[in-house]
Write a structure and sequence with these properties.
Layout: H1 3-6, H2 8-29, E1 36-38, E2 49-53, E3 56-66, E4 73-77, E5 87-93, E6 100-107, E7 122-124, E8 136-144, E9 149-151, H3 154-162
Parallel strand pairs: 3-5
Antiparallel strand pairs: 1-2, 2-3, 4-8, 5-6, 6-9, 7-8
Length: 164
């Protein structure tokens, strides 16, 4: 069994911490050290981490995929649209080195609310019920990879997150 499958929760947390570390490092290198990191105690609106910089607050849902993976969409909580500058960051990482390779971003410009969830496909549960029916998840939408914008560097992503 693959370590990535067996210890997926561990890996997800590790990637999250690496991402936050890269964001903090950029704040340091930009000579402002203004980035604040907050972690919701409860994740019922899809928000994994809150970052604030230059008076822009970003409620972020994090997603990950390994380099070369075939994932073509992500499930996004619609309540993220009610949060200040809500967005989704899809991190693509190297499964051998855990290097953060590139990023997909779904959201609006800094200071603007998340839009684009209104007319997207409602997600379904991955497991079927006793009748073989996969129930709809009314608060979750499926966003295709083509709706995300790809950024090759964490610095480019940082700039999109916090500067207009």
């Amino acid at each position: 069994m693959s370590k990535h499958f067996e210890h997926s929760s561990f890996r997800e947390k590790l990637i999250e911490h690496l991402f936050i570390g890269e964001m903090l490092k950029l704040s340091w290198l930009k000579d402002d050290c203004q980035l604040e990191v907050m972690k919701p105690e409860v994740d019922n609106a899809g928000c994994d981490v809150v970052l604030e910089n230059s008076n822009v607050i970003r409620h972020i849902q994090l997603k990950t995929s390994k380099l070369g993976g075939t994932t073509s969409s992500q499930k996004v909580n619609i309540r993220l649209a009610s949060k200040p500058s809500g967005c989704v960051i899809w991190i693509v990482f190297d499964e051998h080195t855990l290097e953060l390779c590139y990023f997909y971003f779904f959201g609006a410009e800094a200071g603007k609310p998340l839009t684009g969830l209104e007319n997207v496909k409602v997600a379904k549960h991955t497991k079927a019920n006793a009748d073989g029916i996969k129930a709809k998840r009314p608060n979750i939408r499926t966003i295709n990879k083509g709706q995300f914008i790809r950024y090759e560097s964490v610095e480019a992503l940082f700039n999109v997150l916090f500067y207009k």
